[in-house]
Amino acid sequence: MTAPLPAMPQAGLLPPVLSRWFESRGWHPRAHQLALVELAQAGKSALLIAPTGAGKTLAGFLPSLAELSMREGRRKPALHTLYISPLKALAVDVKRNLEMPVEEMGLSISIETRTGDTPQNRRQRQRREPPDILMTTPEQLALLLSYPDAGDFFGSLSCVVLDELHALANSKRGDLLALGLARLAKLAPGLRRTGLSATVAEPGALRRYLMPQPEAGESLSEIVVAPPGATPEISVLTPVSDGAEEVRIPWSGHSARHALPAVYDAIRANRTVLVFVNTRAQAEVVFQELWRLNEDALPIALHHGSLSAEARRKVEAAMAAGTLRAVVCTSTLDLGIDWGEVDLVVNMGAPKGASRLLQRIGRANHRLDEPSRALLVPANRFEVLECVAARAAALEGAQDGMVSREGALDVLAQHVLGCACSEPFDPDDLYAEVRSAAPYRALSREDFGKVVDFVSTGGYALKNYDRFARLRPNAKADGDMRLRAASPSVVQQYRMNVGTIVEAPMLKVRMVKRGGRKPLGAMGGRYLGEIEEYFIDQLAPGDTFLFAGHVLRFEGLAETEALVTKSNSAEPKVPSYYGGKFPLSTYLAARVRRMFAHREEWTALPAPVREWLEIQAWRSVLPGEKDLLVECFPRNDRFYLVCYPFEGRLAHQTLGMLLTRRLDRAGARPMGFIASEYALAIWCLRDPGLMHERHELPVGELFAEDMLGDDLDAWLAESSLLKRTFRDCAIIAGLIERRYPGQEKTGRQVTFSSDLIYNVLREHEPDHILLRATYNDAATGLLDVARVAGMLKRIRGKIRLKRLDRVSPLAVPVLLDIGKVSVGGEADEALLSEAADDLIAEATRLV
Amino acid sequence: MLKTRSETATPAHPSLTVCGVAFDLLPEGAAWLRQERLLVVADLHFEKGSAFAARGVALPPYDTRATIARLETLVARLKPQTLVALGDSFHDGGAEARMDADDAARIARLSRALDWVWIAGNHDPEPPQGFGGAVMAELRLGPLTFRHEPRPAPAAGEIAGHLHPCAAVRVRGRRLRRRCFASDGTRMIMPAFGAYAGGLNVLDAAYDALLPGLDFHAWMMGGRTVVPVAAHRLEGD
Fold this sequence. Notes:
The structure holds two protein chains of two kinds. Chain A is α/β, with parallel strands linked by helices. Chain A contains 32 helices and 25 strands. The longest helix of chain A has 19 residues, at 826-844. By secondary structure, chain B is α/β, with parallel strands linked by helices. Helix content of chain B is 20%, strand content 30%. Chain B has five helices and 17 strands. Chain B has helices spanning 2-9, 48-54, 63-78, 95-98, 101-112, and strands at 15-18, 21-25, 31-33, 38-41, 82-85, 115-119, 134-136, 138-141, 144-147, 158-160, 165-171, 174-183, 188-189, 200-201, 217-221, 226-230, 234-235. In chain B, the strands form two sheets. In chain B, strands 8, 9, 10, 11, 12, 13, 14, 15, 16 and 17 form a ten-stranded mixed sheet that branches. The longest helix of chain B has 16 residues, at 63-78. The termini of chain B are far apart. Chains A and B meet through helix 19 and helix 28 of A and helix 2 and helix 3 of B.
């Protein structure tokens, strides 16, 4: 990206107190920082794209500090700048980092945070006496906008700073924020917006997001691009043969357990290391294993979203104080919290996207002129390829493209109710306002009307609920078309349910004494954090599992709490599911495919992986860059069809469902399938390869694009995926409450009843607006339909079918996953590893 | 082909004997006394959706017609002489007033076409009069007593509803949770039939006095059949 900086602005732009501060530190304001000040003085909104360590945050606030420093005399407290970040922790951290220069400049500027953790009395005080600068989250902005005094509160606002905009914009939270910004533009005309972003492939989308969009055409913010930082140093960890021991790279799995001694050595050799993993479960395992190896008793900590807030805060404080040598963490620490002294980032498993990798690498060494150092630790052979591809992408500074999405209707419903809570609204006016938000640019008036009806009465064709409407005509004067919240309880309902993050139902984990006299349920033990309900559901009392860094024994449930005791066993009985949380990005997938096709790139691969590819080339063929390899082979009385689209697990799952239906119709008698990030395997009682040869089911027909029509619809009708998505949409849209006032409703009850509601609604009003929202969500999220569609189009006429007499080397990893889908006991694991050895021998046997 | 179809059209439903009387347990969640041509359903909860709507939660207003449609299908297929609704047929006292006129007419048509008994429940101690049918606190039939709320054991011959029993079992690592009939052979607790009725696990303490110990079976509702599972194999919630 080469958008130029505006001509070098004058240092004289800054008020003396600010320039003196820079001088006193021996610093010069950077060009991009001054450029933002200059644009702000011209009243212009801007997107700043800068690498980590470029003084991005200070750049965002510099215009506000300049304006606030020139205020004179006493004044009524009024909000000047609103800062919005995707993470609570980030808001707190940025406040700390901003307070220091403000203090050193001797400015009297009040800076406060407002998050879900802010005590009630401080929130009330903030509304009466706003600080100059308020740091908050999109959810808190929505809440503030729903108060009747929102107009007064935000009337004085002159600037909004949106941090980590690339992480926010393209999501439901981004939709909520965009609607909030549209509202702010109305309450505070002339409001400036500043977006801070890491490098993105298409900055145009973010520039559009920042600006209120006009009736026709589009409006883009200004853009300032800071020079890139030093090129990072990235290595891919591969086991080195020391002569005595055989070099091992696992065929499948996601734990990278084999590599942990090397990771431990890296921790020992550095000052502070961040160890990123992709899932909470993986974090637990890695943490546990590192401590097993930790002979030097190095301070190694664990940080993930399920731990109690207290536990997390302790880790963050210790990290800030520089007393930790390593933190094992999930994406909760992906974003720009300043850890200061981190000198190495370790990424366990494959990074799944070029942009995520760059983001994580940026956590090491917050100084621009020194390269960040990162170590990628692939967990299996496919991940070796992915890590090597990701490394190449990161060195080029290549980014993943963003999938553009339309504003979600369930989020819009929530926003409409929020508007009604604040003040009566005229639907036509609100429609115009909503359409000024970039994600809702294409919203039709008809759909908007349906959303308003939904908010009011559920929007059903059967008009039964008018008397229970949540919106009532204001009718203060003739021609007053405005609607208002029907009662204070409606307002209360809104405030209890605001936000777009619907967590999987969680249970509290509490440590109790084993064998105590107290009956289960007599509380008082230590609270360890929260865990997904579905995980606890699969445990029987006595089972052991990993959580909060301990092996715990599950004792039983008491209402919404899982009671556990400390276990003496070293190995948990119930393994956690290691599947990645993020799908492989389209960009990285293409790079991995390219590596297969270009042997000259194999020099970057460790020997066992090269051999694996060589044997694949000899036994079968290698997947090409543009085509799709489909292998058919018999094994244990079944016929396997394995294909390698490299489109991510979600897309493969969808493809698996659709192909299975087709194979079934054609009489291939499919028995099951399994999807990995890279491949899809289906097993049948008849041989699809033979059926292709006999023209009973040509493989080109099997993969024809029309499967996305009727087959998809028919499958969706029965899919439990849609039920889960429906529940989330229903909660966001406010149909199902997160909890009732005065009555805690556990996720368990929500899950159950939302399925019943889904069934009834689907049968009686299949085109209801909430079902449309559900379908849109599933198509872009859980099903990744767009990606399946793109793949089918890409491979049309380019399918290579290879019939084999036995399993191919490339098929081994996905076949090994077959046993891991459901959780088994130790016996299952042992059986599986026996089976695994046979499989590998069979695949690599040369004759 | 035709032969296969006729075979699947009349699947053999499992039979459960309570005090010597054999019921067919239907996957729709109803019990069928073939000799008496008597159909039993529990906890219809008509207008539960609109009851929530009145509290600001606008659930789809189709639960009543979804429930009726399933009843109509059963009645058309089995042609019962008598239908016993085991109480909590109406979600609350305002259900009749909130009900859509078409739905109300369908209930009335159905209840007038056969001998219909509304057993009173705690949600509907006085079921509305407008639909026809007889209202009773209990119905006795030979060794059987049909009532809404089950009484502590022993309660030989009792057929009750009220608790919305459901059961969970793990098969090959997968957990399945379904509505169920719960019976120890002396009594039976029926699953809720209403479209929006939730479920209470049969291992919950609420069943302790009714089905003591683990000496009972949960007859879990599958898609096409009903499957008996011994209580000791079940899981709690």
